[in-house]
Amino acid sequence: MKHESIETNAGLLIVLTLIVISIGGLVEIVPLYFIESTIEKVEVEGKETIHPYSPLELRGRDIYQREGCYTCHSQMIRPFRDEALRYGHYSLAAESKFDHPFQWGSKRTGPDLARVGGKYSNEWHVQHLIAPRSVVKESIMPNYPWLMKSLNYKNVRDRMRALKMVGVPYSENTAEYEANVKRFGEDVAKNLDILRAEENLLAQAASGNYDGKADDVTEMDAIVAYLQLLGTMVDFSKFDDGHFADFR
Amino acid sequence: MSSEKSKPTVQTTGHAWDGDLQEFNNPLPTWWLWTFYATVVFAIIYWVLYPAWPVGGSYTKGMMNDITYTTADGKTKTTHWNTRALLLKEMQIAREEQAEYLKDINALSFEQIRSKPEKSAFANSMAKVLFADNCAACHQSGGDGVMGRYPNLLDDAWLWGGSFDKIQETIANGRTGSMPGFKASLSTKQISDVSDYVLSLSGNEADAAAVKRGQAIFSGQGGCAACHGADAKGQDFMGSANLTDKIWTIADVSGAETAAAKKEAVMNVVKNGKTRVMPAWKGRLSATEIKILTYYVHQLGGGK
After folding, report:
1. Which residue does chain A place closest to B69, by CA atoms?
2. Is the pLDDT reported for residue A17 higher than 60?
3. What is the pLDDT of residues A47-102, one digit of tens each?
4. For chain B, what percent of residues have pLDDT higher than 70?
5. Are B131 and B265 within one domain?
6. Is there a domain that residue B122 lies in?
7. Mutate which of B1, B138, B140, B276 to test chain A, going by most A C-beta atoms within 10 A?
């Protein structure tokens, strides 16, 4: 085929261009689904420690996305020394395997949040989200006072079902629940039960009381629950230094 | 590509628009072509040296078998080039280089560090960086805290004890300080009386009769003495505040100007209580880092 006949035939040019580009994409992306070490296995005593979000944490994550936190905060600690010293252990692929979409981000106007869970108290998060400069004077983060309004959790089951469709193991029947118990342990599995989603959400908000207001489940409860979970699902003290390097 | 109407120097594509508009068909510039070949060669060399091509469930690891680190069981391991192993190696080299300085910090007791100006200066300068990254978000960069929320580390009062050991314990394991609210169990009048008594303890003006009634509630029905102690001096092991000094951490008495405002501040705390959490840093910071921070925090205020 002469080059001229391709250049003078727009339809053919489009088709051939698409083929060439998709070969590039397929060669880079498809093998990752077959390479066994792409997503690390993180198991302690036979149970996977990285699990899908509880209903409350899931709503918190939705709010994180709604408010566009990802435009200023990344959730991806790269394997560099400066990042290890500041943020902790590098992020594992496994840690975002239940994220749809992942929140890795690529811009750090604020600090990385991949391991922010447990670093500050709930009270600090609430105060900091409402008025960042009241605790960090030099902060340029906007105020988010409206997070203290009541959380709409009526559609949390539908949200879980939607994630289930893309492969997140929320359970809707006994067999799926039993599989989750085997995979994550009972404490986690019961939080992944779609049919008990609302009652689980209310129970977690009540026992955690993340926003310091006992009488109301607020968006603040949800987002603080989510933030306090970030980066805490892998207990790195249980693994040797080189353990996760062996996956590469 | 071919051209019927070839000109002696440069070919055209052979098509004429608007009668005389033609398009040159220049060959690629030589510099561009050679740069392109060079990138192809670079790619091939890269494939050979670095991890590159997927093969079944694995991938080619590259010939650069040059990253050596020490495994957990003390053996030396050499592996193909990858960023995780590279980080491990760099961290180990850095740790080794720091070891010379840190071994003294690890070996010496807090008192010994304090008696050696050089070690003390080293610990303090290292601690400043750690403090800024981990502690300043709550306790503020100078360590003065936020009234009502995060304790001031510069004063002489220590809720959980101000000895080196106690501070180290606080940083490593975290603390949860919980003052219950009394609005359900005491009447407003009783809360008012107790507040008068509490204010009188540190020499603030208060109604004498109310103080007397408040004292009875403090050690009796209110149960305040159970945590704050009969002498109201607080107890380290449960983080209850010393109410007899002039240092306030929750009720902003020193910041209130009028007597009424001072009482209002105290009454609010008695009514609603306050729970404060200091996170545990054990998993996030190394034992040495916690030791260095302990030393720094101890000398920030009146460490005991």
Report:
1. A242
2. yes
3. 999 999 999 999 999 999 999 999 999 999 999 999 999 999 999 999 999 999 99
4. 97
5. no
6. yes
7. B138
Which of the residues A121, A233, A237, A239 would you substitute to probe the B interface, choosing the one with the greatest number of B C-beta atoms within 10 Å? A121
Residues B271 and B245 placed together within one structural domain of the fold: yes
Residue B47 lies in a domain: no
Q: What is the mean pLDDT of residues B284-301?
A: 92
State whether residue A155 is helix, strand or coil. Answer: coil
**Residue appearing with tokens 């083929």:** A19
Residue B48 lies in a domain: no
Query: Is B188 found in the same domain as B134?
Result: no
Spell out which chain A residues touch chain B, with contact meaning CB-CB distance below 8 angstroms: 2-4, 31-32, 34-37, 78-81, 84, 86, 88, 90, 115, 118-124, 127-128, 134-137, 235-237, 240-242, 244-245, 247-248
Mean pLDDT of all residues belonging to chain B: 90
Q: Tell me B302's DSSP state.
A: T
Query: At which residue do the structure tokens 């039960």 appear?
Result: A193
Residue B128's domain spans which residues?
108-174+279-300
For B88, phi then psi, to 5°, come to: -55, -45
Q: Domain tally for chain B?
A: 2
Which CATH number characterizes residue B243's domain? 1.10.760.10
Mean pLDDT of A28-46: 90
Min Cα distance B61 → chain A (Å) is 9
Clarify whether residues B268 and B292 are in a common domain. Answer: no
> Tell me, what's the pLDDT at B6?
47
Chain A residue with Cα closest to B70: A242
The single residue listed with the structure tokens 């936190």 is A69
Quick count: other Cβ atoms within 10 Å of Cβ A174?
A: 9
* Closest chain B CA to residue A122: B277
The verdict on B103 touching A (C-beta cutoff 8 Å) is: no
B283 & B165 share domain? yes
**Statement: residue B64 has pLDDT above 50:** yes
Instruction: Please tell me the predicted confidence (pLDDT) of residue A4.
Output: 79
Buried b (16+ CB within 10 A) or exposed e, A143-169: ebeebbeebebeebbebbeebbeeebb
Q: How far apart are CA A94 and CA A43, in angstroms?
A: 11
Chain segment B169-188, per-residue pLDDT in tens:
999 999 999 999 999 999 99
Nearest-CB residue to A81 (from B72, B87, B275): B87
Q: Using CA coordinates, name the residue in chain B closest to A231.
A: B284
Separation between Cα atoms, residue B231 and residue B222, nearest integer Å? 15
Report pLDDT for B7. Answer: 46
- Does B211 lie in the same domain as B157? no
Q: Is B85 a domain residue?
A: no
- The interface predicted TM-score of the complex, written ipTM, equals 0.87
The H or E element containing residue B76 is: strand B76-79
Tell me how far apart the alpha carbons of residues A177 and A164 are, in angstroms, rounded to a whole number: 13
pLDDT at position B254 is: 86
One domain, residues B126 and B207: no
Asked if B74 reaches chain A (Cβ–Cβ under 8 Å), the answer is no
Residue in B72, B137, B279 nearest the CB of A135: B137
Q: Is residue B76 within 8 angstroms of chain A, CB to CB? A: no
Residue A245 has its nearest CB partner, among B85, B133, B284, at B85
Q: Amino acid identity, residue A230?
A: L
Across the interface, of B54, B87, B134, the residue whose CB is closest to A90 is: B87
Does one domain contain both B224 and B272? yes
